[in-house]
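ARCHIVE CARD
Drawer: 12
Card no.: 0347
Subject: one protein chain, sequence and derived structure
Cross-reference: see card 0346
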Amino acid sequence: MRPSFSADLFRFLTELRANNNREWFLAHRDRYDTDVRDPCLTFISEVGPRLRAIGRHFVADPRPSGGSLFRIYRDVRFSKDKRPYKTNIGVHFPHRGGTKDAHAPGFYLHLEPGGSFAGAGLWHPDAAALGQVRDAIVARPHAWKAVLASKLPLEGDALRRPPRGYPPDHPFADDLKRKDFITTVPFTNAQVLSPRFLSVFIKTCRSMSPLLRFLTTALGLPW
């Protein structure tokens, strides 16, 4: 079984971190295509049928532009940080019924030297979606309790106080404060470079699926 990724991916990202400028990137563009982009697109293609066995509405789109692979280019229009390139790789597998961006419920893979991880959930949802999730927690406490029983570490931003309209003494008051509903599982470099990484990633997605199933249902989307 061949590895999905080689050490050349992390090597490129490490060098890009030290040379984050257009001249260097253009001089090494062929390395980006060969060592980073192409292996990621192949990985996305291989994830697709396996991910549908977990939730058949999640999209693995291997197109080089506009698909599951996030752009390497940073949006610097409103940032003081003008470095033009990301020094990590992001891959998202969103629900086909959600918004077509990073804010849709879905699975996520982050590749970065020393900082890779898988993620799942709902990141920075709009007010309407956030309200739907909070209402679902109140309406279906046993289902939410089952999510918590899976021991997934919930992460993200939260309010200091319970949101207006929800009882401050609710048993899940801390969860009602959440503005993000996400969980992550870290990977070492060795795990990412292992021939078994595709299977490890899918197993990790399966372990995170209780949270994603709850969120997807709360938004009125099919699982």
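Annotation on reverse: The mean pLDDT is 95. The chain is about 45% helix and 15% strand.
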